[in-house]
């Protein structure tokens, strides 16, 4: 296979993607990774601009992520949050003291007029991350979720405040029409030797990124050197509300349901051994099924999964 620029591009959400990318970074040098990250679940808290997925990727690749949650910083303290509660009421979105520093820095740099891509690169450098970590867009896109009988609410309110309760009827990405994809993200997909769609939520993590026509087209054009990893194992998401979202939006809750969403975009679809009975159905969609262990319980297991994906894409490592 022609190496193109020898880099590997990835589309990423938060925790599922971060676990995979940490494994990938054990197989290939971080500087060979171009990571395009969802920013549609960004939000403002206490006047600060919080980018949960970008931070999860950076903290994980920087080796400081909280291993228990997968998000936030290990051993962080919560004095600031506690001090803020008499002013703002009981907090429902956990932000640690060290985490606050990231959001303060980001907010001040954005206020100074720097684009989010540049600020994200600065934050990645601060945490020693050598991979290129890019927001999908400089402009804001916000995911709203509508539950049965309720008004649309911002994604973090649905996920964190409401603990993903209720029946999802609609998911919308507000601002997507007016936003432009990051040119460097589109270029990364075009030039990469391989593209990997991380095991992230296909609706609310990868969905907004693929909402950009240019990104979708670049991935479709790279289909023969692109793979996606299923976030569903044994018919269920490892974590999070993906099953409710798939069901609510009329998709099958299985690896096949996810494969259908990526059918025109990737050539290889990686599923867990627990879902091996779907391999033929995935092949019938025109995707090459790869059956392996996809539960990334440890960085070593994530690395093994990454190695399998690279081999399936004919990339020698
Ligand atoms: P979020 O934005 O933090 O929710 O993160 P993502 O969208 O990147 O990841 C959420 C998805 O990752 C969920 O649908 C999980 O099922 C999936 N996930 C988490 N851990 C694993 C794992 O070890 N293996 C696989 N295959 N998927 C995982």
User: Based on DSSP secondary structure assignment, what is the total number of beta strands?
Assistant: 14
The tally of domains stands at 1
CATH topology value: Rossmann fold
**Helical segment tally?**
13
Average pLDDT taken over every residue: 96
Can you summarize the main beta sheet?
Answer: 7 strands, parallel
Q: Which regions contain 5 or more consecutive residues with pLDDT less than 50?
A: none
Strand content: 15-25%
Summing up helix and strand content along with how strands pair, one would put the structural category as: alpha/beta
Q: Compounds present?
A: guanosine-5'-diphosphate
Placed side by side, the strands forming the largest sheet appear as: 5-2-1-9-10-13-14
Binned, the helix content reads 25-40%
| CATH architecture annotation | 3-Layer(aba) Sandwich
The level 1 CATH classification is Alpha Beta
Overall radius of gyration:
19 Å
Give the end-to-end Cα distance, rounded to a whole number of Å: 13 Å
Overall shape: it is globular
**What is the N-to-C succession of helices and strands?**
EHEEEHHHHEEEHEHEHHEEEHHEHEH
Name of the CATH superfamily: CofD-like domains
Assembly annotation: single chain
Structural summary, described in words:
The protein is globular and about 55 Å long. Helix 1 (15-24) runs parallel beside helix 2. The strands form four sheets. The protein has a seven-stranded parallel sheet, sandwiched between helices. It has a three-stranded antiparallel sheet with strand order 7-6-8. A two-stranded antiparallel sheet has the order 3-4. It has a single domain (8-139, 177-312), classed as CofD-like domains (Rossmann fold, 3-Layer(aba) Sandwich), CATH 3.40.50.10680. It contains 13 helices and 14 strands. The chain has helices at residues 15-24, 52-61, 79-88, 97-111, 116-126, 155-161, 183-191, 206-210, 213-221, 242-248, 255-262, 279-284, 299-312; strands at residues 8-12, 33-37, 43-45, 48-50, 132-135, 142-147, 153-154, 168-174, 194-197, 226-229, 232-233, 236-237, 268-272, 288-292. The chain has 317 residues and is of the alpha/beta class. The protein binds guanosine-5'-diphosphate (GDP). The site of guanosine-5'-diphosphate has 24 residues, from helix 1 and helix 2.
């Amino acid at each position: 296979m022609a190496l193109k620029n020898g880099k590997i591009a990835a589309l990423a959400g938060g925790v599922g993607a971060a676990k995979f990318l940490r494994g990938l970074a054990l197989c290939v040098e971080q500087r060979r990774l171009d990571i395009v990250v969802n920013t549609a679940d960004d939000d403002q808290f206490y006047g600060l601009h919080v980018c949960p997925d970008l931070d999860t990727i950076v903290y994980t690749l920087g080796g400081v992520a909280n291993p228990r949650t997968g998000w936030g910083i290990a051993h962080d303290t919560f004095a600031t949050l506690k001090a803020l509660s008499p002013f703002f009421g009981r907090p429902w979105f956990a932000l640690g003291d060290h985490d606050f520093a990231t959001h303060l820095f980001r907010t001040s740099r954005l206020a100074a007029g720097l684009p989010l891509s540049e600020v994200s690169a600065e934050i990645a450098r601060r945490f020693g991350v050598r991979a290129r970590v890019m927001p999908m867009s400089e402009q804001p896109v916000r995911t709203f979720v509508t539950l049965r009988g309720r008004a649309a609410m911002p994604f973090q309110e649905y996920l964190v405040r409401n603990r993903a309760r209720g029946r999802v009827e609609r998911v919308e990405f507000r601002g997507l029409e007016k936003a432009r994809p990051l040119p460097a993200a589109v270029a990364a997909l075009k030039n990469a030797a391989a593209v990997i769609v991380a095991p992230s939520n296909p609706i609310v993590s990868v969905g907004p990124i693929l909402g950009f026509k240019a990104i979708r087209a670049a991935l479709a054009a790279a289909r023969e050197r692109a793979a996606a990893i299923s976030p569903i194992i044994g018919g269920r998401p490892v974590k999070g509300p993906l099953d409710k979202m798939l069901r609510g939006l009329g998709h099958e809750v299985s690896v096949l349901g996810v494969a259908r969403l990526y059918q025109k975009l990737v050539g290889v679809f990686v599923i867990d051994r627990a879902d091996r009975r779907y391999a033929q159905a995935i092949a019938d969609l025109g995707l090459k099924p790869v059956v392996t262990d996809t539960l990334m319980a440890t960085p070593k297991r994530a690395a093994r999964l990454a190695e399998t994906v690279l081999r399936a894409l004919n990339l020698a490592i």
